[in-house]
Design a protein that fits this description.
Radius of gyration: 14 Å
Domain NIF system FeS cluster assembly NifU N-terminal: 2-126
Distance between the termini: 48 Å
Helix content: 40-55%
CATH architecture: Alpha-Beta Complex
Number of helices: 5
Order of helices and strands: HEEEHHHH
CATH topology: Sufe protein. Chain: A
Strand content: 15-25%
Protein name: Iron-sulfur cluster assembly scaffold protein IscU
Number of domains: 1
Bound molecules: FE2/S2 (inorganic) cluster
InterPro entries: ISCU, NIF_FeS_clus_asmbl_NifU_N
Pfam families: NifU_N
Oligomer: single chain
Shape: elongated
Function: A scaffold on which IscS assembles Fe-S clusters. It is likely that Fe-S cluster coordination is flexible as the role of this complex is to build and then hand off Fe-S clusters.
Length: 128
Amino acid sequence: MAYSEKVIDHYENPRNVGSFDNADPSVGSGMVGAPACGDVMKLQIKVSESGIIEDARFKTYGCGSAIASSSLITEWVKGKSLDEAQSISNMQIAEELELPPVKIHCSILAEDAIKAAIDDYKSKKTAK
Ligand code: FES
Ligand code: FES
């Protein structure tokens, strides 16, 4: 199947690959898997005192669309509030990357992972 140029660009030059120390209280981590294909995505956010996402990282074991979706969402969430990041939908990702229907679940993985990272950050905060 043909990948769009944007997918290939993110696949060749993924942004924000890596991870933050999970022990850092300003870090939220989300890890999700796609039952359909067995791919796994981990997204992390680093949040400022004022609730703005300052930085993001990802590690994805998966197809090109999953890698591109995670790379793209780490770029998008930077500088956003938690609420703004929460409202990013997989359809925005799928549209930007021109994903075909069979690859939509790859973008859902990115939406779910960022939501999981936000939840993790919030639960860490309230646990303090
Ligand atoms: Fe092969 Fe996702 S189905 S990498
Ligand atoms: Fe399963 Fe892309 S995440 S094929």
